[in-house]
Write the structure tokens for this entry.
Amino acid sequence: MKELVVETDGLTKRYGERLAVDRVSMTVERGEVYGFLGPNGAGKTTTLRMMLGLIRPTAGSASVLGRPAGRPEVTARIGALIEGPGFYPYLNGRDNLRTMARYQGLPNAEVDRVLEMVDLADRAKDAFKGYSLGMKQRLGVACAMLGSPDLLVLDEPTNGLDPAGMADMRALVVALAEAGQTVILSSHILAEVQEICDRVGVINQGRLLRESTVAELRGAATLRIRATPEDTALAVLMRMAGDEGVRRVGNESLEVDLPASAAPEVVRQLVSRSVDVHQVTVAERSLEDAFFEMTGTTSTEQELVS
Amino acid sequence: MTAFLNSTRAELLRLRRWSAIWVIIGAGQALTLSFGYVFNYVAYKTGDDNFAEDGATSAQLLAELMPSAIPDVIISGLPMFGGALAMVVGALVAGNGFGWGTWKTVFTQGPSRVAAVGGSLAAVTVLVFAMMSATLVLCTGVSVAIAATEGQTIAMPVLSDLAASFGAGFLVLEMWALLGFLVGVLAKGPALAVGLGLVWSLVVENLLRGVGGLLSGVESVTDALPGTAGGSLAGAIVGGPNGTPGVLDAISGERALLTVAAYVLVAGGAALVVMRRRDLA
Ligand SMILES: Nc1ncnc2c1ncn2[C@@H]1O[C@H](COP(=O)(O)OP(=O)(O)OP(=O)(O)O)[C@@H](O)[C@H]1O
Ligand SMILES: [Mg+2]
């Protein structure tokens, strides 16, 4: 069995009447990049805060690196950027990191190392308050990497970055992961998670809906078929894939939950019922589709055939 | 212990580079210089006896400008402006961390909350010590210069008097700084803390003391307030009210010392307790 770096058990946080996090039980394994995925207000930041001991759970517990979350000896081994970088505006970037390095008892050389990693060394002498949003974000990530922590927790690290900055940030996370770094990365950008995460946890309205690999989440590939007359085609396809296995996509196409290998048989069946087949494509379901399905927010172009 | 020392070093690094802190310390020095020396010296030179104190003779005025009077000068301004400035320092150090999100960052570095907040309190204490030392150096320099200019023999104060005055002044400043720190923690920001703190220390306490003269019930309350304690401690050092606002003799020197020390411990302890358990959202 893989070593668990994070394990939460029924983690719950209530703010007055609102359940910000509702009985979340998740696990993060050593060496993986774990994507924490959810729309705005889903409870991602609140969960991560509890993992770091910044706030106390209303119920449940979180253990990090085998110990209760929030203990100093645990926090010392986590590097975190939670909901935006928090730095002294009057200090320059380097002095901000030097201050945090002192809290950890690290030498100044460590500061220069992480500044290089986020490509901020040439602006390190400028005051933090004069940084652009993206530079502030990068300084926050640099701070999280101080002292090469066992676990890196990055709450929406690409927030405010331009496309090049986002690509750099992803490359950085991928490079860290290749070196064996365990990373928890929260995001609502699905492409980002799809690209760099090994496993994802999907959270919505405080509930952890699913936890699995990206591939599992996306599910098998589907077939997209454009054929007329459509109602005959629909009947044929439903017989093959089941009533739930066929969806209408857009105005003309039907999406069928069948693998690419089923394409010849599907065409044969349709043709034998005198249906004109105009187009058959293999469509990989995107994480986005899976996500919208799970969170109940219907994506605009897709509805279940009923 | 290592965590506490690391935190203190970290906090000192960032406070040292904060211009707002230097502005406040500089303002304290300018006020001490003005009220302790400049105005009195001008009054002495122009011979206007009514300028500083009613009926003060030239000889008395000069005596207050001499090195032997340093113990009085370094503490006289503390109950009023010194305390107010120290309070602003405390409120800024603690309060800004919430809006800037720096408490959040600090609490994820590794030291326990008690170590981190304790380090911040220790750094504030170092600042207060620096403020007091700067005042001492300034007063020594200026009074020696005046003595030399006026052709007076330079007689230094008795060391024990100087130490007592320095220690009392340090305690009064520390009390106000930690009270400011606590209010900054409770208000989760510097603005409200500085505003309310100054209104309290400069206005409300004075008004209450005014009322207390009429109603004995109120007086027992005002005798326990920080302004009364700090003012009375200063008063005990200089030998009773010397005309400087805020220097009092409302309570005895010993009681004043105990009250000030109690405020230091309670304010620091309360700040630690509140921060230890608080949700940092
Ligand atoms: N301090 C607080 N007081 C009251 N409600 C809160 C507090 N912090 C969070 N919440 C509520 O908890 C819910 C989850 O918030 P959270 O910040 O965890 O969401 P998130 O998933 O990080 O969203 P985003 O993608 O916008 O960052 C929201 O409904 C939010 O309003
Ligand atoms: Mg968030």
Summary: Residues 64 and 79 of chain A are 12 Å apart (CA to CA). The interface with chain B takes residues 49, 52-56, 72, 75-80, 82-91, 95-96, 98-105, 143 of chain A (CB under 8 Å). The longest strand of chain A covers residues 4-15.
